[in-house]
Amino acid sequence: MRVTTANSSDRSIATLQQRQQALNEAQAKLTSGKKMSRASDDPTAAARAERALASVARADASQRGLEASRNATVLAESALGDAGELLQSARELTVQAGNASFDDNQRKSLANAVRSLRNQLLQVANRGDGAGGYLFGGQGSAESPFVDAPGGVQFRGTEGVNMAASGEPLPLTADGNAAFLRASSGNGVFVTAAAPGNSGGAWVNAGRVVEPSVITGDDYSLVFHVDGAGNTTFDLLRAGVTSPVTDVPYVAGQAFEFDGMAITVNGKPGDGDRFDATPSARDLSVFDALDRLANDLQTPGRAAAEVTQTVQAALRDIDSSASTLIAERARLGEVLNRTDGVEGRIAQGKLLAQSERSAAEDIDMVQAVSDFSARQTSYDAALKAYSMVQKLSLFQYIG
Hints:
The protein is α+β, with helices and mostly antiparallel strands. The protein has eight helices and twelve strands. Helix 2 (43-97) packs antiparallel against helix 6 (304-361) and helix 3 packs antiparallel against helix 5 (286-297). It is rod-shaped.
């Protein structure tokens, strides 16, 4: 086989070019810190990196949703704290109203103070979230979710809550309807009340449950009778029908127990006075409770027993409403605790995705330096070989 000088030169140049290209590639990887500059360099690694990048983007979106939920929850929790303070102030005013030495003007002054607190509470319920929405708008409300209508405060939002676009469901709003308008009436099991048209000489307490297993859920009434000698008795009606319990002697302040319930009537009932006990429901509006209290306190000429009945009913309703707000505030506190856990899981998932992307894209710097050094040595060797081939010419000998 005949090997010419030109052939040797061409082969040396080709080898030199290959070594130079390999050296350039090693230098580019070393400079960028990446294994590949194009997806075609390693399709499998490129696909892994793309999936990891998508996971990082999802984690970033979830983090933004989490922060929005956290901000809204903190604001709502703070608003419920303000609402609780307003109810506590209303409760203190109610206790003052029970002072037997107060006259109509003093109670009217208290009524005005209660109305002021009620209006402040309405402002809290309509508090904005700073982003054009409302903290207690439920699933959405273009305008203030609570409207002070002639029949009382009404909820014009959408019940429920909006959820953040996160990997785990987190609320962006609170259900104002449930928080402010859906407290349990009465003591949570039944509601006691004096019938309209009573003589106004007696009042009934909130009652209590003594045996939950025998509660029937029926309506009950105590109907009082006063004979000519001034003796007072009462009959028990169940669902509007006289029960076997009749002509029970009345003792003021003594609890009367029936079908798992106990209620206490105080004062001097008139003949035909009636006190009812009906099943409780989650329909107590804190605004209606304060409105009733204010209206009763400003009504002049009421008997002491009627004032006492107003005070006891108002304390019962305010306490029930406050318990509902406290429960909602506790729920929001639990959401904040859960948010911390979700944030940790999002951060962990993002870190894993970043690690996966790094494993697919990033080079081992130690190995990269070694490869660059080896290719540089190889390129130097190719240069020396080429220079030697260049000297193998007839003209060199002739010269």
